[in-house]
Amino acid sequence: MAQAFNLSIDAWNADEVPIGAVIVHKEEIIASAHNQTRNQTDPTAHAEMIAITMAAKKLGDWRLNECNLYVTKEPCPMCSGATISARIGKVFFGLEDSKMGCLGGATSLHQLERSNHKPKVYSGILREPCEAIIQAFFQLRRQQVST
To answer: For residue range 10-37, what is the model confidence (pLDDT) as tens digits?
Structure first.
């Protein structure tokens, strides 16, 4: 999770929403990314989406059953769906998202009754720094807009 947090700092430095994601396979980091939606002008360029694509290419398989995802903020509907579709085994995230989080925050896509894959989800990992960086980023944004 510390590596995911470091990537959130990289995102901030790139003028992106500070979210970082890391995918681990058998105790080895095989993919890592930060948000790139602004720089790529791509609404799907979330840290999780980029990391999932990288991990699948690295393993040569779209099934990531033996992988764990570490991400600084609870995945949105798109990223939660991709996590489930990729069959990621476990998801660890820092900050819960009651508005758009879909692994327990706003809703729980991973608990859909008829879903054929249900990753184990763990929240609150390094919560305080993950929350602090996102709050600081948006506070600064609001100040920039008002001046």
So the answer is: 999 999 999 999 999 999 999 999 999 9
Beta carbons within 8 Å of 62's beta carbon, 6+ residues apart: 56, 86
**Beta-bridge partners for 92:** 70, 122
> Looking at the annotation, which residues are catalytic?
48
Can you state the percent helix, strand and coil of the chain, rounding each to 5? 40, 20, 35
| Phi-psi sector, 60: left (phi>0), alpha (psi -120 to 50), beta | left
pTM above 0.85, yes or no: yes
Phi, then psi, of 14 in degrees rounded to 5? -95, 10
**For residue range 53-104, what is the model confidence (pLDDT) as tens digits?**
999 999 999 999 999 999 999 999 999 999 999 999 999 999 999 999 999 9
Beta strands across the sheet bearing 120-123: 28-34, 20-25, 67-73, 90-95, 120-123
Question: What whole-number distance in Å separates Cα of residue 7 and Cα of residue 112?
Answer: 31
Digit-coded pLDDT (tens) for 51-64 = 999 999 999 999 99
Inter-axis angle of helices 127-146 and 2-13, to 10 degrees?
10
